[in-house]
User: What shape does this take?
Amino acid sequence: MEVKVLDSIMHGVLKPWKLDTTNTRRYTELVKAAKAASPNTNAELLSQLTALLVDYPTLQKIVADETIGNTALQPLLYKTDLPKYKDAVTHFYYFVITGETLRVFNAVLQQAANWTELVDIRYQVGKTLTNVRVLAKQVTTELNEQGFTTVPDAESSVVHFGLYYLKHSLIELYFSIQEQFKASLSQTTTIEDFYLLDLEEPITNIVYPVLVGEPTNNSQEQNSNNTIQDKLSFGFTCDKERLKAVIVQLCQKIELLNEDQTSSDTLFKIFTCRDLEAITDKVYLGCETTQFRYIIDKLTPHFTNLKLKTIEKTDAFFSKNGTKITAQNLSAGKVDNPKEKGTIDNILKQMQ
Assistant: This one.
C-alpha cells in the first residue's frame, strides 16, 4: 500500500510551508468538522478525514477508494509521546497525520484477509514497509536541512511541528505493521537499526515508540498448510552483547540471580530465545522481587514482548524464596525506588 496522503505533507498539496496558514479561521472550521466525528469504525474515520480534506478532493478520493466496509478500528500497536498541537493549524496537521496513519494501518489489516500465501504476505507487507520507511527518511532529511533538531514547542513553526509529527507517526506506523506481521516476515528491524541504517541518524536521536497493543488475528492464522504459529518469546530487539554484559554486572553488583541454581548465561538464553516453550531451564532470583520488577520495566523498551504475563507463561522464573513468579506478584512488586536503584540504573545505561 502507498501512503499518498502522508506523502502529500512532504511533497504535495499539504506541504506546511506552501499553505496559507494565516487563514486560521478556515483551519478552525476544518478542526471543528473533524471533532464532530469520534471514529470507532473505518466508515467513521473516513467521515472525519473527508471533513478534514474537503479542500483537497484528490486526497479525499484516495482515502475513500482505500476504505472498505465498516469494521471496528484496530489501534496502532506502537505509540510515541509526541508534542501537543498549539493552535488551529497544528491541530489540523495532528488530525490529518494521526487519522491517516490509523486508516493506513487498518487498510493493511483488511487487505491481509485476502493474502492466502506466505509469499503474498511478505511481498505486500514488505512493499508497504518500504514506502513508509522511504518517506520517513525523506522527512528526516528535510527536518535536518531546515535545522529542526529539537522537539517542537510553543514557539516552533507549523513546518517544524508538521514534519516532526509526521516523522514519528510514520515510525509508529512502520513498527505497528511490522509487529502485526512479524511471524510471517523473514527479517525484521530494530528501532536502533531503523535510526542508524535507514534514517541515518545517531543513536542519541532515538525517540523510542512503546508497544501498547498486540497483533490481531489475520492472515497469519490461515487455514491450510500455510498456517503460521506465533512462538512464545520475549522478542529481544537490541544488541545481544550489551544485554549479556548487563546481566553479568547485575549478578555481580546486586545478586540478580541465585548463581548456585542459575547462571547468567541461562537468563541470557531465556531472554533471547525465540521459542520459550522449548526451554526447560529455570531462573532463580537472588535479588528482591521489587528489584527484578524494576529491572524488567527498564528493559522493556528493548523487547517487543517482555510483559508480566509472558514471564508468567514461561513457568521459568522463581523468587528468592523459591516461589513461582506470576504476573500478579510482579505487579504487586512495582516500586519507584527499589533497593540499590542507583547501581541498577548505572548498569542499565549500557543498553541505551
About this structure: The chain has 14 helices and four strands. Strands lie at 78-79, 210-211, 283-284, 317-318. Residues 118-145 form the longest helix (28 residues). Confidence is low (pLDDT under 50) at residues 218-229.
